[in-house]
Amino acid sequence: MANFDYSINADSAIKIYDNQGAYNTLLEMMNCKEQLTVRFYSGKDNIPCAWIESKHIAGFKYQLKTSSFHSLLNYLCKGAVEDFDKNPAEFDTIKEGEDFQLKVMEMLITLGKTIQFVPTFRERTETISGILPCFKGKIMFRIKRTEEVLNYLRENNQIL
User: Rounded to whole angstroms, how far apart are CA atoms 91 and 151?
Assistant: First the structure.
């Protein structure tokens, strides 16, 4: 009887995410004028990501850079479709420990968007949930509930 071999080929251990495939899927969804549901978050190694899904396509991750982020928001708000990512394998990074979702929410509030939040008395104590309806979909938020976030939302007339 032979002993089990625990060694592994280093090349097969690490897989690179297929962001090109995610981009192609997103572009096809946009060309079909689908209503998208988008959630933003920070991925591994401080990579800003969007979780994108629709009625016909299951959710998938798309790693963002500044230009693709702006084009995605442009599609959601105005329905504009463009070939916006010439090299989807490239992506930007954010500062370590930065909450990308929170920064996106703050940016949208600064632009004058009104996010519909679940009443805080109905929400679980550790999170605040909100939704921003757009022309071609919606952006969903689930933010960690802190006194700082609550004060920010109250100051900007987002919650009572």
Answer: 33
Measured CA to CA, the distance from residue 73 to residue 123 in angstroms comes to 27
Would you say residue 46 has pLDDT above 70? yes
Specify whether the backbone of 30 is left (phi greater than 0), alpha (psi in -120 to 50) or beta: alpha
Contact 148, 91 (CB under 8 A): no
- In this predicted structure, the answer to whether residue 14 has a pLDDT above a threshold of 70 is no
**DSSP assignment of the chain, as one string?**
-PPP-----HHHH-----HHHHHHHHHHHHHTTPPEEEEEEE-GGG-EEEEEEESSS--EEEE--HHHHHHHHHHHHH-------S-TT------TT--HHHHHHHHHHHTT---EEPPTTTS-TTEEEEEEEETTEEEEEEEE--HHHHHHHHHTTS--
Q: Is the confidence at residue 123, as pLDDT, over 70?
A: no
| Both tokens assigned to 132 | 């921003």
pTM: 0.84
Give the mean model confidence (pLDDT) for residues 95-104. 91
Q: Which residue, chain included where needed, has tokens 């251990």? A: 13
